[in-house]
Amino acid sequence: MNDSQKIQEKPVLLTELMGLVAKCEAVYGQKWVFNRVLALIMAELFAFGRHTITQLLLTLGLVDEDWSAWYRIFSEGRFDEEKTGAVMLGEALTEVPADDPFMVSTDSFHMPRSSQTMPGTGWMRGLRTAKFKGNCSPPRPHRGGGVDPLPSLEWGGVGWGG
Fold first, then answer.
1. Distance (Å, rounded) from C-alpha 83 to C-alpha 28?
2. Which of 42, 136, 139, 141 sees the fewest Cβ atoms within 10 Å?
3. How many CB atoms lie within 10 A of CB 70?
4. Residues 37, 71: contact at Cβ < 8 Å?
5. Per-position DSSP letters for 36-101, written without gaps between them
6. Which residues lie below 8 Å from residue 139, measured CB to CB, with a gap of 6+?
7. Using CB atoms within 10 A of its CB, is residue 152 exposed (0-12), middle (13-18) or buried (19+)?
8. How far is it, in rounded angstroms, from Cα 127 to Cα 141?
9. Which long-range contacts (CB under 8 A, 24 or more apart) does 28-33 make?
């Protein structure tokens, strides 16, 4: 039977992702910084296991390379999270009509941190402490990881204690 049509399917996810990343290119001062950030984003898609910078570089096959330039993207302020997040939020808002609500869903996890100055940390029950003891002591949790395209959100009634 030759009466059925063949429909050409086009991979949309990669095209949309590349378009979004291209809109963030103006945020970075130099082309090589943008190229490295783009490579890290692609590594995020293919990395199995933990999504740390080290694991992403291993995913890219940069086993014998000097990684210091990759780490300097984040340690010396070449990656501006606020400006990148503003671009992402602006693009997300174009998908929703102005009079419709913008639905936001978040997920979080606790990563023990000991810094007194790290944003997003607060006192909580120790992760290895029994819930009934109500111990409110370090380690201090850090919310999530990665780039958050939204401005800082309030926890809205979620309790920290035991």
1. 9
2. 136
3. 20
4. no
5. HHHHHHHHHHH--S---HHHHHHHTT-SSS--HHHHHHHHTT-S-HHHHHHHHHHHHHTTS-TTS-
6. 112, 113, 114, 126, 127
7. exposed
8. 9
9. 28/78, 28/79, 28/80, 29/78, 30/78, 33/73, 33/78, 33/79
**Nearest to residue 124, comparing CAs of 154, 158, 153?**
158
R_g (Cα) of the chain, nearest Å? 21
User: What tokens appear for 16 in the block?
Assistant: 């949309």
Using alpha carbons, select from 108, 111, 112 the residue that is nearest to residue 139: 112
pTM score, whole prediction: 0.59
Question: pLDDT tens, 42-62?
Answer: 999 998 888 888 999 999 999
